[in-house]
């Protein structure tokens, strides 16, 4: 199983935002610099996460984003599945259309992959976003975030 870039960056954003103190906001520009990625990639991801209610977005001169308080309980598998479906990069694990498969009428492979993918999401659902935060390194990450600004 492989996640696409949209999902990878989305998870990085959620994990990074966890380390912000509740009263602080981050910006897409700050996150792009901290994560060493393109701002354009993050804009689409942050917009999707704001629409999904995972992050709060504030407009204006002093605007920014932060993790929504309810997001700490989000299940990792549900997040990965939603990000994968929202991505323009999403493709099936097995594509019976390209090139056209002559055995697809009696082949169980797509069903097997679909079941494995659901098991993957189910397994990830044992974890919440909060559980991805390493408590022992919180101070180190906070210092890192300050240095990146």
UniProtKB/TrEMBL annotation:
Coiled coil: none annotated. InterPro entries: Tscrpt_reg_Rrf2, WH-like_DNA-bd_sf, WH_DNA-bd_sf. Keywords: DNA-binding. GO terms for cellular component: cytosol. NCBIfam families: rrf2_super. One of its GO terms (molecular function) is DNA-binding transcription factor activity. It comes from the Bacteria. This is Nitrite-sensitive transcriptional repressor NsrR.
